[in-house]
Amino acid sequence: MPSHTPPLHDDATLALLRQGRWFAGLPDDFQQRLLHPARRVNLARGERLFSRGEANSGLYAVLSGAISVGAVGPSGKEALVAVAEAPQWFGEIALIDGGPRTHNADAREASALLWLPLPDLHALLAEDPRRWQAFGQLAMEKLRALFMGVEELALLAAPARVARRLLSLATAHGQLAEGRTRAALQLNQEQLGAMLALTRQTVNQVLKDFEARGLLRCQYGRIEILDAAALGREGED
Predict the structure, then answer these.
(1) Is 80 in contact with 194 (CB distance < 8 Å)?
(2) At what angle do helices 132-155 and 189-196 cross, to 10 degrees?
(3) Any idea what DSSP says for residue 140?
(4) What is the overall mean pLDDT for the chain?
(5) How many CA atoms lie within 13 A of 220 on its CB side?
(6) How far is 56 from 54, CA to CA, in rounded Å?
(7) For residues 77 and 121, what is the distance between their CA atoms, to the nearest angstrom?
(8) How many Å from the N-terminal Cα to the C-terminal Cα in the chain?
(9) Is-cis flag, bond preceding 87, omega within 30?
(10) Which of 83, 87, 85 is nearest to 23 (CA)?
């Protein structure tokens, strides 16, 4: 089971979360109000945070490590929807519609999360209903990225789709503050293929070509972007 520690109020946590565009755009008093009831959740590698269909327990932000968000079909095949890393937030869909969790959330590695329990979220929203707009914006950021991804699947060839998705992951689908990117992405070729409806073989061929041309470097469970500008040109096709 995930372990929980007392509330978080430290400046380091606040600074980390401000690296995310959504949190950084909130008024300072709202930022502090969000942190006041927050607790730290520690997960071991492979440990599940919540499962699809479970009742909503609150909102989470990644402080360290990485969380896989996805589902497993009856055949055992995994559908990876997203990989959340610091300082990404997740869990807002169930908050907004009051429904159950839409996907499984599992720790890809030892991870630490900030957890805002549901009763505390309801309390701060009751204080000022205008705060609902902030959580709506968080959900719409992800919906916008989803629509762009659907368009790419329909219109782009495999190399362009891979290039665009890697660059999107590097900015956490636009969730990182302006000017911030991740050079190293924590996912393997099979998971990248699952995101793009491409076979592992196709993804392997594309990545090998990009690697040979110095655009990126592939390691076990990790892809490092070396030339984002050149990768961006590949995504223009």
Answers:
(1) yes
(2) 90
(3) H
(4) 87
(5) 0
(6) 6
(7) 34
(8) 46
(9) yes
(10) 87
Cα-based distances in Å from 128 to 57, 123, 124, 133? 21, 9, 7, 10
Taken in order 75, 77, 82, 85, is the CA torsion positive or negative? positive
Written as six digits, the tokens of 86 are 């610091």
Three-state DSSP at 106 gives strand
pLDDT, tens digit, for every residue of 178-204? 777 777 888 888 888 888 888 889 999
**The model scores a pTM over 0.90:** no
For residue range 90-119, list pLDDT tens digits in order: 989 888 888 899 899 999 899 999 999 999
Residue 216 has φ and ψ, to the nearest 5°, of -155, 175
Contacts of 55 (CB under 8 A, 6+ apart): 100, 101
Helix (H) or strand (E) holding 191: helix 189-196
